[in-house]
Amino acid sequence: MDWNYGDILDAVALAVPADRPALIWRDDVVSWGLFDRRTNNIARKLVELGMAADDRAAILCRNHPAYMETMAACVKARVLQVNINYRYTADEIAYVVADCEATTFFYQDAFDDLLPELRQLLTSVRTWIRIETDRQPQPAPQGAHSFETLAASGDGAPLDIQRSPNDGYLLYTGGTTGRPKGVLWPTGQSRLVQLESPLIPKVPQSMEEHAALVRANPAPSRTIPACPLMHGSGSNAAMGDLLNGGTAVILPNDRFDADELWREVERHRVTRIAIVGDVFAKPMLKALDDNPGRYNLSSMKVITSAGLTWTQEVKAGLIGHMPQLILADVLGASEASGFGFAIASQGKIQPTGLFDAAPKTVLVDADTGKVLPKDQPVEGFLARTGAMAAGYYRDEAKTAATYRMIDGVRHVVPGDFARWVPPNQFMLIGRGNLSINTGGEKVFPEEVEEALKLQPGVEDALVVGQPDEKWGKIVVAIVRRSAAYDETAVRAALGKTLSAYKHPKRIILVDEIPRHESGKADYRRATALVTG
To answer: Residue 176, exposed/middle/buried by CB under 10 A (0-12, 13-18, 19+)?
Structure first.
């Protein structure tokens, strides 16, 4: 089946009740009927403004319904939407827009002060569209369009347009090193990855069957993406629910607050939350531990996580408060997803970092690049065939290094290092390009971080390498502590779980760990902190 997000959204809009909520944000509820009309109107306007298939439209917007409306409108118009980190400076925004050559720029009115500078820097942009936070049409600055006016102008009918499964979106990721890079995701490939989830009871084989399944489901899921929509984890979680006729509940504020999250779950009878590992799960658990029984969470069914370690102990704690929960830990990257799954429920929680391999997942040898056998505990880089992104936008060398032809088959190899556990599991070790070579031994930061975070008084931790004349590099830990922290006790405990060469030679105490808004580690800032 050749899937296209725009086609799916058109089909779903006909299958669901028009008054079902599609988006909820604060007190603003966008019904499916209204969502369909508004996104059709915006999509048609993009075409009228001269945007053709694969033209790029960037969006600078905080958590807001307009973010998902813009994403839906772009896929309907065959336009590549480009995510912009709203914490970027004008120069950083200009870099991404120039790199992708965006010709249209959606921006929220919260960034009006940046507009004069951006107009000078963004030379490729022809069309400016201003998003009104309060959802009321307002006169836009000269040379710009009002988002609300565009959304309300037109008959809301679907576009008479022939789409392709190769239509997609650009996911810009800061990664761990270097400048942001855009990963080009055809929506057909993205949809195939979604359908690999072991939580899907029935995989539709046609658009007609998908629409029938949506029509027959009277109580679809309501999902809260816990991280900002500007990150792939957030927008993909919200879009995933919309593609199934559900509801995306957008958190009221940009800074994550676990108590606010649980209040929204109770208020809107949310069934699913999407998080990024322990950075979100730990405060969520603490809020429940500190206030047992405060929130009615009986509606909750699933918490999914991707992109960061989610520890066994935290999973057990969440299930302790919500015994009905299923926890789905999905191992993926911006370049591909669905390498492995760890599905947990009451009485069944796999050890931290252990995943069931997806059918198309393999390990490749770090030296030869060849696929390794699955019948022995070998170590290598995780790779997969099948559905994946097309590559890095306008970067053939980087694409060739990550998307490799092995024995005549295209594999994606993002750089995660793992140990095979026969017959069909693997233990994640860490990110290969982050490993620290100290005295000839290889140390993976994630392994040391998880050992540290299990110690009393360690609230959070990052581990990086610091250049050293004797060792080449030494292991340095950045730790956020509580009152219970005792460095002597922490170091003694590490001796029971980690080889001596993996122990931090320095521990730096900080009030806040350098992390991106998604919860992922900001290793560049961490390295600057250690070496500066």
So the answer is: middle
Domain end (from 398, 413, 432): 432
251 part of a folded domain: no
| DSSP letter, residue 495 | T
Instruction: Please check whether residues 502 and 412 belong to one and the same domain.
Output: no
Structure tokens at 138: 């307002």
Q: Average pLDDT for residues 320-348, to the nearest whole number?
A: 96
CATH number at residue 36: 3.40.50.980
Cβ atoms of 409 and 364 within 8 Å: the answer is: no
The total number of residues shown for the chain amounts to 532
Q: What is the CATH number of the domain that holds 303?
A: 3.40.50.12780
Task: With both helix axes pointing from N to C terminus, report the angle between 207-215 and 5-15 in degrees, rounded to the nearest 10.
Answer: 40
pLDDT of residue 176: 47
**Tens digits of per-residue pLDDT, 251-276?**
999 889 999 999 999 999 999 999 98
The yes-or-no verdict on residue 227 having pLDDT over 50 is yes
Report yes or no on 370 lying in a domain.
yes
Residues spanned by the domain of 43: 5-219+226-246
- Residue 231 gets which letter from DSSP? S
- Judgement on whether residues 377 and 442 belong to the same structural domain of the protein: no
Task: Give the model's pLDDT for residue 472.
Answer: 83
- Measured distance CA(36)–CA(254) in Å, rounded: 26
CB 479 within 8 A of CB 458: yes
Cα–Cα distance, 248 to 340 (Å, whole number): 25
Strands 272-275 and 302-306: parallel
* For residues 71-79, average pLDDT: 98
- Per residue in 281-328, pLDDT tens? 999 999 999 999 999 999 999 999 998 889 999 999 999 999 999 999
Q: What pLDDT shows up at residue 174? A: 65
Cα 454 from Cα 497, distance rounded (Å): 11
Residue 184 lies in a domain: yes
